[in-house]
Structures are given as C-alpha cells and as structure tokens.
Write a sequence for this structure.
C-alpha cells in the first residue's frame, strides 16, 4: 500500500518505512520534477546554492552513496550543480559516472536511420509552433510544455518515426515530452550497476522520481528490497511526497540522521 510523506496526513508508519533494517541507505535521485520544479524550457532551470549544499551534506551523511539519475546528460548535470560533481547516470542510463569519477558509456552505434529520424523529428518541431526540440546527440526529445494542445498529435508523429527505427530504439514519454533513444540502457540498468560498486554496494537503495521515465528504476529498487518514492501524483510508488520542496525535507531528514535506524 502506498503511503504519503511530508504531507498533512503523513503517518508515523510511512516515515518508519524509511528506517533501514540491517544496513544503511543509498540514494538515487531524478532531477527535473524531483529535485527541481519543471521549468517552461529545459534551459530555464536554476539550481540554488541551498539545494547544492543539501545534496553535499546528504552525500556526506550517506558516506558518498548518492547519485543523480536523470534524462539530462552528465555534462549538463555538472553545469547545473557546479562546482559540485556527483556520481550520476545521464541520458536515461546511456552514460554513467561512478563514485570514483570513471565514465561508462553504453555502446551506441552510429545508425544512419537515426540520423534520418533526427531530421524528421526536427521537421515535426518546426511544423508545430511552440514545440521545442532538444538534441542530445544519441537521443532526441520534443517538449510541448508551452503548447500542451499539441501533445496528442506529437505523440502520434514521434511514435511513427520511432517505429521506423525498429526495436533498437524506444520512445520515452514524460511530462509533455517525448524522447526517442536507444533501448540499450535504462535508469534501472544504471542503478543496478551502481549497486555493484562502492560506496553503494551492500546498501538498501531508495530511488526518488516523478515520471513514467522513472518506473523502471522504481521496479529495480523494489526488486532489490529497496524503496521507491514518487514525487507528485503522475506515477505510483511505495511512498509519495507532494513536491520537490518535500524532497528537500526528505534529504534534510536523511542527512541529519532523523531517519536512521535506531
């Protein structure tokens, strides 16, 4: 049964779900919609110093076992959270930087068919005023945050283009965004890889996310005896918080030891 945290009807039982038994936590965090409110465009987000400091404090409290798991590229995450660098998985698991700083990149071949799909997706964005194309090199996302009325036709057009690429590619659908990416890696794959390495190995995983793109990560941590935490009401998880502001409250409790096992 799903329980709510940091809300007026939060229960002691819900908070106790975050007391690890027989070990310590490790923490995986989505970024947009989870740590940060969704902005009108991807470039419009700003990470304030208080959040950066809180993440550093939380990482210290968990002996380094904190990683960002995002659809953004790692280079973009580094820009957002500068001057700090965190263990991170970017591009929905296509790239990963472990806690030692080593970079692991999924072997994505240059596919001529994808180059044609990239051009087709750019044409879709041009044909639908207000739709924003975000080219991540190995994947392409189309955002309709400013023009949600385009979402039904955008979904149909993007899916048709992706279908032409075959099973090597998939469409990830998020909050008013559709992304065509290689199917070779996922957020779940990245989380499982982290859990084989220090300082994550042997710890109980928590993954906090807000969208459909986080569901495979939720399933991964749940299958490993960890906990999934949903932000907002778009997706289901074992626990729920209302907003990114409540995620900060959760991080504060974890970093200050208020949710540690007695």
């Amino acid at each position: 049964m799903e329980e709510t945290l940091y809300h007026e009807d939060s229960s002691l039982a819900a908070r106790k779900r975050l007391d690890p038994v027989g070990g310590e936590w490790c923490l995986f965090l989505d970024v947009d919609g989870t740590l940060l409110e969704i902005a009108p465009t991807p470039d419009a987000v700003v990470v304030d110093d208080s959040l950066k400091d809180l993440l550093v404090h939380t990482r210290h409290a968990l002996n380094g076992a904190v990683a960002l798991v995002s659809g953004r590229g790692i280079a973009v995450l580094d820009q957002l959270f500068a001057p700090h660098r965190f263990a991170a998985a970017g591009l929905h698991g296509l790239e990963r930087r472990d806690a030692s700083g080593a970079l692991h990149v999924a072997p994505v071949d240059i596919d001529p068919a994808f180059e044609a799909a990239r051009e087709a997706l750019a044409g879709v964005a041009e044909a639908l005023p207000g739709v924003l194309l975000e080219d991540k090199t190995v994947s392409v996302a189309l955002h309709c945050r400013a023009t949600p009325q385009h979402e039904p036709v955008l979904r149909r057009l993007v899916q048709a283009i992706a279908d032409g690429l075959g099973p090597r590619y998939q469409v990830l659908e998020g909050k008013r965004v559709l992304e065509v990416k290689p199917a070779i890696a996922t957020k779940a794959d990245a989380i499982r890889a982290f859990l084989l390495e220090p300082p994550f190995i042997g710890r109980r995983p928590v993954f906090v996310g807000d969208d459909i793109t986080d569901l495979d990560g939720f399933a991964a941590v749940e299958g490993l005896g960890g906990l999934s935490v949903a932000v907002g009401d778009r997706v289901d998880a074992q626990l729920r918080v209302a907003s990114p502001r409540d995620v900060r409250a959760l991080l504060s409790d974890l970093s200050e030891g208020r949710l540690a096992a007695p």
User: Anything to note?
Assistant: The mean pLDDT is 91. The chain has two domains: 3-106+185-255, 112-182. The longest helix spans residues 112-127. The first strand starts at residue 3 and ends at 4.
